[in-house]
Design goal:
By secondary structure, the protein is mainly alpha-helical. The protein is built from four helices and no strands.
Amino acid sequence: MKMVKSSIQNNDIYGIIVCALCLLHCIATPLIFFSVAVSNNNKISPPFLWKNLDYLLLAISLFIVYNSAKNTTKPIMKYLLGISWLMLFLVISNEKIGIFHIPELVTYIASINLAVVHLYNYKYCRC
């Protein structure tokens, strides 16, 4: 039973870590692309993995959100985790597709929001 509690808590810790990595990726990407553009006379060729790292982080966070929502003790947390992940997914998808102009700050807020929900779930919604 102790192993099960430990893995449930780890889901939220992993979720916080993935959200932090996502936030760092979102902050670092413009800085890296700008520095590469300046040094290469505006010829930018971002690496494939760096361009698509946000999709990888979203996929990992979906798995973590699913496991955290499945194992939380408060039913409202299932909805909060799902809505927070959906908000992050929509913001990142919109950024890639470019349907609406949304400030970069919204991406940061969505990532921080999901991390805060994971933190709350970790501290107050244990089995």
